[in-house]
Amino acid sequence: MEVVPQRPVDAEEQRLIARLRAHDEDAFMELVERYSASLLRVALLFVATRAVAEEVVQETWLGVLAGIDRFEGRSSLKTWIFRILTNRAKTRAVREARSIPFSSLAQAELGDDEPSVEPDRFLPSDHPRWPGHWASAPQSWGELPEQRLLGAETRRVISDAIDMLPPVQRTVISLRDVEGWSSEEVREALDLSEGNQRVLLHRARSKVRAALDEYLADAA
Amino acid sequence: MTAIAGDQMVCIELVELVTDYFENALSEHDRRRFEEHLAVCGPCVRYVEQLRMIVDLTGHLDERDLELEPELREALLEAFRGWRTPSD
Fold first, then answer.
1. Do B54 and A28 touch (CB under 8 A)?
2. Residue-wise DSSP of A169-197
3. Which of A35, A46, A219, B25 has an alpha carbon 20 to 30 Å from A87's alpha carbon atom?
4. Residue A147 pLDDT greater than 60, yes or no
5. B-chain residues within 8 Å CB-CB of A180?
6. Alpha helices, DSSP H only, in A47-141?
7. Does A3 map to a domain?
């Protein structure tokens, strides 16, 4: 499912676009059904309330209708739709006075030195035999039945852990791992360098892992 | 955490590089050190598996779908019909 950056439209999208340009209502509603839930989730990463997010989604669809005749297909239709969304959502976020730009939030988050695993889980660097090795190995999650790992409880723990992340880390992990965006798409939407995007993604994943680990230890 | 055990990767270094590894962003040299370490370190194998599991589990969160409000659906349908038949 990982997509080459700027993948152009495929045949299926090509047909949808043609139908849309021919003013086919079913084609439009098919797209709306397919993407609105994801559009709403992504909008909520940028704006504060569900009501505003819904307005942004609505504006996005109006933008799609207004622009479809000029859409050149250099990116996929999906990428193009979400680009419209993130542009509108960012504009709204500024207007709402949640106006700290992502780039400065990102700089603040990158400035903190955050180890992926608590340093005291490792032997000290002056240890005679095993410097920097695990002092206590990560506990096994292996005995857990698959069912439990995929269960509602686990999802809640992961979802809560994501909600607790600093804003840019939360946004990066949500776009990359929940919505399945490519790193290229995330970099463009958030105006991050590739390296910084990866650092923030790694921090986010590490914290979510730690949260699930803690939950499983307590539940054991 | 530098200058430990010559050029070999150690656990505390590896845990910082897992996403880089997943994304093929390590240099050839570091990728080899990463894999050589994994070949001899069970706890790090477990750590890497857990992080991969987190990526997979997070990828399933979108199944808790937000419902599209009927009003929004209606409004979009209306907008589409307005677009289809310009009033002027």
1. no
2. HHHHHIIIIIS---HHHHHHHHT--HHHH
3. B25
4. yes
5. 59, 62
6. 50-67, 77-95, 102-111
7. no
Residue of B10, B61, B64 with shortest CB distance to A133: B10
Question: Model-level pTM?
Answer: 0.87
Question: Is A74 within a domain?
Answer: yes
Q: How far is A95 from chain B (nearest CA, A)?
A: 22
Q: Are A158 and A92 in contact (CB under 8 A)?
A: no
Among all residues of chain A, which has the CA nearest to that of B45? A138
> The domain containing residue A85 runs over which residues?
11-96
Question: How many domains are contained in chain A?
Answer: 2
The pLDDT tens digits for B31-63 are 999 999 999 999 999 999 999 999 999 998 876
Closest approach of B16 to chain A, Cα-based (Å):
6
Q: In terms of domains, do A88 and A192 share one?
A: no
Q: Do the domain assignments include residue A90?
A: yes
Q: Which residues of B touch A137 (CB under 8 A)?
A: 42-43, 46
Q: Are residues A128 and A211 in the same domain?
A: yes
Q: Are residues A112 and A153 in the same domain?
A: yes
Q: Which of B2, B17, B48, B50 to mutate to test the interface with A (most CBs of A within 10 A)?
A: B50
Half-sphere exposure of B36 (CA within 13 A, CB side): 10
DSSP H helices in A11-76: 11-21, 25-46, 50-67
Token pair for residue B64? 């808790």
Whether residue A117 sits in one domain with residue A87: no
**ipTM given for this complex:** 0.85
